[in-house]
């Protein structure tokens, strides 16, 4: 990192114990801090340089010594120097910052998924196993955790200073952020987007636990139904399975394996079935009509809560082969013919 580890430890320890600096409790934290300290040092250098020159020049060129002002016509070399050096520093900061940004906002593929729903004024967390929490989030250390977040009302922002991550939580759209916690402990969770009267109370605890403690916690706080199981129930109770049952004669496309695939639309475009896309097809189906299908799916706008949508998305993501729902809930004779699948574009 360029800084000696001893000096680094001393610096962060001093700053942490002096409460000026949040703890560093994620893999990204030292990197974010290094950039921050670098900016700080560059600023300090600029301050000292300008301050010193100001002082030296005002003494050297004081009135008694130089009573008559001389006209200086400029120096190309000097001007080029003070343009190119700062430009180099700024570009360096830009590249460093961009690299950090992409690292923070591109979750690794093997990250554990947790869903966050923000509303005035609380944070709800949903683990795939069905554990629900309010104003708290339990995570294991030493493992990447991806948060998929959405707001039920206004803009919020999910911020964990000790992990150096923060992301806007927006109505109508999933946003994601990820981290890998390194130290057991309880850390602050803040809403950092002013969201109304009780905004300052929209806080909580992030509990980073050893993997075995986290395992125990998931077992103790399970609701008995995973998100996907809740989704399967909803899928049946909302009548989705009347059109999406995997039968060759079904009115809707087979949803098995849809998640993550590229789908050719009737307007010729190709859309990628991300989590957000799946959510949006349920709310605005007429805007996502795959080639060969009629826009007959009704909109479910206003009929399913964000939690319900998360359950459905989790359920659809888990559909790898033909539906279990077909066996358990569809009483009509299942068709052995190959199910109808929308045309997938192979990459
Ligand atoms: C009346 C039949 C019908 C019902 C009921 C229905 N769908 Fe659909 N669904 C379709 C059709 C037809 C399409 C493709 C055309 C479109 O998007 O309108 C589709 C598309 C989709 C897609 C996009 C998949 C792809 O490959 O393009 C998803 C996801 C989906 N539906 C989920 C659901 C869910 C979840 C429900 C229940 C809340 C539901 N559908 C209810 C008929 C239906
Ligand atoms: Cu808020």
Question: What ligands does this structure carry?
Answer: heme C, copper (II) ion
CATH class placement of the largest domain? Mainly Beta
User: What is the CATH topology classification name of the largest domain?
Assistant: Immunoglobulin-like
Largest sheet descriptor: 5 strands, mixed
Q: State the order of secondary-structure elements, H for helix, E for strand.
A: HHHEEEEEEEEEEHHEEHHH
- How many DSSP E strands? 12
What does the overall shape look like? elongated
Oligomer: single chain
Architecture of the largest domain, CATH level 2? Sandwich
The overall pLDDT, averaged over residues, is 84
Radius of gyration: 28 Å
User: Total number of helical segments?
Assistant: 8
- Classification by helices and strands: alpha+beta
Task: Outline the low-pLDDT stretches.
Answer: 324-347
Percent strand: 15-25%
Distance between the termini: 38 Å
**Overall structural domain count:** 3
Transmembrane segments: 37-59, 80-102
Domain Cytochrome oxidase subunit II transmembrane region profile: 11-108
Function: Subunits I and II form the functional core of the enzyme complex. Electrons originating in cytochrome c are transferred via heme a and Cu(A) to the binuclear center formed by heme a3 and Cu(B).
Cofactor: Cu cation
């Amino acid at each position: 990192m360029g800084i000696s580890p001893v000096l680094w430890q001393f610096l962060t320890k001093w700053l942490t114990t002096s409460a000026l600096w949040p703890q560093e409790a994620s893999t990204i934290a030292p990197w974010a801090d290094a950039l921050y300290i670098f900016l700080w040092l560059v600023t300090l250098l600029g301050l000292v340089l300008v301050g010193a020159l100001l002082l030296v020049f005002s003494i050297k060129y004081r009135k008694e010594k130089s009573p008559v002002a001389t006209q200086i016509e400029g120096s190309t070399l000097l001007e080029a120097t003070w343009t190119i050096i700062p430009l180099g520093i700024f570009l360096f900061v830009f590249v460093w910052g961009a690299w950090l940004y992409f690292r923070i906002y591109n979750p690794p593929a093997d990250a554990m998924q947790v869903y966050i729903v923000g509303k005035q004024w609380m944070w709800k967390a949903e683990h795939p196993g069905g554990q629900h929490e309010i104003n708290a989030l339990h995570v294991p250390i030493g493992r990447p955790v991806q948060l998929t977040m959405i707001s039920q009302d206004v803009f919020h922002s999910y911020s964990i200073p000790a992990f150096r991550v923060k992301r806007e939580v927006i109505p109508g759209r999933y946003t994601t952020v990820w981290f890998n916690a390194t130290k057991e402990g309880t850390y602050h969770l803040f809403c950092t987007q002013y969201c109304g009267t009780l905004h300052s109370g929209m806080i909580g605890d992030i509990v980073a636990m050893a993997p075995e403690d986290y395992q125990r916690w998931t077992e103790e706080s399970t609701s008995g139904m995973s998100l996907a199981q809740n989704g399967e129930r909803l899928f049946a109770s909302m009548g989705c399975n009347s059109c999406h049952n995997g039968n060759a004669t079904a009115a809707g496309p087979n949803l098995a394996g849809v998640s993550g695939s590229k789908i050719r639309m009737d307007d010729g475009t190709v859309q990628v079935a991300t989590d957000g896309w799946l959510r949006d097809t349920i709310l605005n189906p007429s805007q996502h009509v795959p080639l060969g299908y009629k826009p007959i799916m009704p909109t479910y706008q206003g009929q399913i809560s964000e939690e319900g949508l998360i359950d459905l998305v989790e359920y659809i993501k888990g559909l790898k082969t033909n539906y279990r729902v077909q066996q358990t809930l569809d009483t009509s004779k299942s068709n052995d013919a190959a199910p109808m699948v929308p045309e997938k574009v192979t990459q």
